[in-house]
Amino acid sequence: MKKFLFLITLMMAVCHISKAQKSYKFYNKQDSIDFHHYRIIMTEAYEWKAWNGLLKRVLVDSSYQDSENYIDYDSAYTLQKQISKFEYYIREQNESYTKIEQLNRTNQFDTITHVSFEGRDLKRLPVFKLLKCKNLKEIELVNTSVKKIPWLLNWSLFGLDSLETIRIYNHAPNKQIKFKRNTNIEELVYRDSPYSPLPKNFHKLKNVKEIDFARNDFRANSKFHLEKLQNLEHLNLSRNNIDLSNLAEDTVNNLKYIVLSFNNLTTIPKEIGLLKDLVDLQFAENDIQSDLIHPALGSLKKLKVISFYKNDLDSLPPFIFDLKNLTELDLYFNEIEILPNEIGNLKDLEKLYVAHNRFFSIPESIGELKFLKEFYLHHNRISYLPESISNLKLITDFHIHNNYFQGFPEFILNFKNLEDLDISYNEIHKFPPEMLKLNQLKYLWMRGITFEASGKEEAEELKNTLETLQKNGVKISIEMDQKISP
């Protein structure tokens, strides 16, 4: 289920950034030169170019044809991967929005709700034309050099009180955009502008509720002063290089969701405790170490979701178990060997993701998680689960593949709400006909399993069980060469 939801989310994100081309920021000129040098080596100095509607492979530099003068493909690939770079997207205008040319020739300003401006030559917004758009909801700036968002857009005298969203992409390098006081804007997007500094005075958007600052490569010295935004609820700071101690200097009210993924973080400082209203906290894809997490994290009593997906945790700090309102805990891809008995304290957990770690066992207290629905513990070293796991009556998704289980875990038959089961790549050679009683089952994964039976009668029973499951609508995943051997 989690895999499916992740794919849906990814598809939505791709749709939202449609017509965007990936680009790179290099931290010095020589890195840029070297990167493209290695790329030419790997392509043998050819590029694909459009010619009369057809793609043709064209030689762009004949000097690279002499292989004796250049390194081989594998070496070039390895060296190119070592070059530090920052990925971002080059955006294009939203086609459905009103462009500046249309704005200049229209007389029907009241019909305009979304406008989009593009081009480095644009340094000032056409304010007086925008003020005629009494139903304007959104302004989009793509690859512009606009210096400020003027206060006139919030002047009630002109009746422009419908503007809710400002989106800014690929802002001019090293040009800091400045905001003036505005009480109507509820959403600010400023992303994919890696050469530009943190927007100045964005705190003057007093009623902003959502801010997306992703993919800007903001540096560690960027100070956000989130305490000044008392209505902010959602904040995306993914793919930057920020210092968490610079998020705020005082208590932050109302901020509920924050994404801090891909920030090269190694520590979680005490300042995290200033975000006291957090409900959802995302630390995915960082380098956070267990002993560098400040206990202040345990003071976020309203927290319901926390993700440490792909970090460097080797243990779980005890104060994690003070977060009694957690409903989702994501520990995917870490180096944790022991799941403490205190996991049973998190009695509201509905989703527990501990896959791709180093667990040998799961504590008896797991049975205290009576509301648990999704439990992913695949890719570990587990051969046995405690009897108390049978208490998890609400389980819908249970993935234990790529472990060391010997035989089918009978407790699975107690999971009457089970929808998605993966037992692949274990030492499991048969499964009971009682599987047919799992009436909610929709997906059954049994890849890498050698089915064995004590005789023809048992082999027939296994085969009939599989066929009946399929007739009942269960989608079964097995490998093409898997057979039932009597």
Automatic annotation (TrEMBL):
PROSITE patterns: LRR. InterPro entries: Leu-rich_rpt, Leu-rich_rpt_typical-subtyp, LRR_dom_sf, LRR_R13L4/SHOC2-like, LRRC69/RLP. Transmembrane segments: none annotated. Keywords: Coiled coil, Leucine-rich repeat, Repeat. Residues 360-471 form the Disease resistance R13L4/SHOC-2-like LRR domain. It holds the Pfam family LRR_8. The keyword Transcription regulation does not apply. It comes from the Bacteria. SUPFAM superfamilies: RNI-like (SSF52047). Residues 452-479 form a coiled coil. This is Disease resistance R13L4/SHOC-2-like LRR domain-containing protein. It comes from Marivirga salinarum.
